[in-house]
Amino acid sequence: MIEKNNISLKPYNTFNVNAKAKYFAEVNNVSDLKTFLETPLFKNEKRLILGAGSNILFTKDFDGIVLKLNNSKIKLISETDDSVFIEVDAGVEWDSFVKYSIDKGLSGLENLSLIPGNVGAAPIQNIGAYGVEVKDLIESVNIIMLENHEEKTILNGDCSFGYRSSIFKNEFKNKIIITSVLFKFSKRNSINLEYAPLKNYFAEKNEGEITSRNIRDAVISIRESKLPNPNEIGSAGSFFKNPIISKEKYDKLKTEYSDLFGFSESDLNIKISAGWLIEKCGFKGKRIGDVGVYDKQALVIVNYGNATGSEIVEFAEMIKSKVENKFNIKIINEVNIV
Ligand code: FAD
Ligand code: EPU
Questions:
Q1: Which end of the chain is more exposed for a tag (fewer CB within 10 A), N or C?
Q2: Entry pTM
Q3: Which protein residue has the closest C-alpha to ligand 2 atom 40?
């Protein structure tokens, strides 16, 4: 267990924002975690559970305890004729687990390659990319309730998973710690090439058999071409969620903008690209001081150097109000603002 006072959180968030934590602690396993939960420090202070800090924006110093869970085991739980069950600790880096699963010959997670962050945070916003969401492979999520330190297992069907959403981001927000996640891999090859840019990538290459490993390589290559590398430019990936609008509104917009495209969410609703809306408002590549909209993907707000969290939020609010004025569509934050 490591405890520090008054530390900078800059190395702990991919936006590279400089905010301080009054207290900061790291624990390496659930037993130490449970001991720590009983300490007066944890009981009496305001708390924040931190993963790899890749979906969080600090707008001020954190006046309480920031707790980082570094448990790091990956365990094969069971195997049947059809499936393999693997339990992964919250502190494992997400992409190293994706790589591990592919190295073991398991398919399903390859489309989610190179997403920053740790396994513990993956169910929180139900991470997704290239036509796959992590809920597709989650069997259950192990948590500790903060009010009574009770350990519980939440089955997939009780997680209220949706687009960038779950029970952990809503009802359970600030009330639980995710300690590990149980994944179920199908032994049937279940590759998914529904997402157009991925399908086009393979259509252009025409390389013969498509495997989980070459889907991983393709996803990494596409991501590197349009998303900032967190080691080089600060960001939290998409700052906003893609909005879901009525089919009626979509049809109306489409008559004005022939390049608009959307994904059907239901018979009545269509998900459209927030990046497209932001680009149409003229923000792509725009920079004010150290805050900007990434020039290859308008959904990503970047910190070019020493932007503060408040400057980033101010910039995001300006984008939201321009989009609302132009299109009468409200876009909402995907990033967790603290
Ligand atoms: P953090 O940012 O540390 O935390 C996120 C939230 O979860 C916070 O509210 C935190 O308090 C809470 N939390 C974290 N761990 C726990 C825990 N163990 N128990 C309880 N609460 C916890 N996301 C996608 O879905 N798809 C993408 O394609 C994608 N691309 C990205 C690209 C870039 C360049 C970046 C920087 C981010 C991207 N993201 C993407 C967002 C991010 O990678 C995910 O949201 C990721 O799951 C965050 O993990 P983390 O460990 O960094 O969480
Ligand atoms: N587009 C534009 N301009 C832009 C960006 C996008 O017009 O600047 C339009 C283009 O038509 C493009 C389409 O939007 O073809 C889709 O773009 P992209 O494939 O980059 O996906 P996205 O909808 O912008 C979402 C996720 C990403 C995820 C990708 C790939 C959200 C909020 N974002 O972005 O997730 O990696 O799909 O599946 O759903 C994240 O959550 O942090 C994140 C990066």
A1: N
A2: 0.97
A3: 238
CA 336 to centroid of ligand 2, rounded, Å: 18
Residue of minimum CA distance from atom 2 in ligand 2: 276
pLDDT tens, position by position, 191-205:
899 898 899 989 888
Same domain, 34 and 96: no
**Is 52 near ligand 1, meaning CB less than 6 Å away?**
yes
> Per-residue pLDDT for 155 more than 80?
yes
Q: Is the CB of 331 under 6 A from ligand 1?
A: no
Closest residue CA from atom 47 of ligand 1: 122
- List the structure tokens of 192: 């998914």
Alpha carbon distances (Å) from 31 to 7, 39, 200, 335: 25, 13, 48, 30
Q: Compute the C-alpha angle 111/116/121, nearest 5°.
A: 95
Residue 318 inside a domain? The answer is: yes
Whether residues 313 and 331 share a domain: the answer is yes
pLDDT, tens digit, for every residue of 204-234? 887 778 899 999 999 999 999 999 999 999 9
Residue type, 19: A
Domain count, the chain: 3
Distance CA 149, CA 156 (A): 21
CATH of the domain at 332: 3.90.78.10
pLDDT tens for each residue of 22-79? 999 999 999 999 999 999 999 999 999 999 999 999 999 999 999 999 999 999 999 9
Q: Which residues are CB-contacts of 323 (< 8 A; sequence separation ≥ 6)?
A: 274, 277, 278, 281, 329, 330, 331
In-domain check, residue 222: no
Q: How far is the CA of 252 from the centre of ligand 1 (A)?
A: 35
Give the distance (Å) from ligand 2 centre to CA of residue 273. 7
Within this chain, do residues 59 and 78 fall inside the same structural domain, yes or no?
no
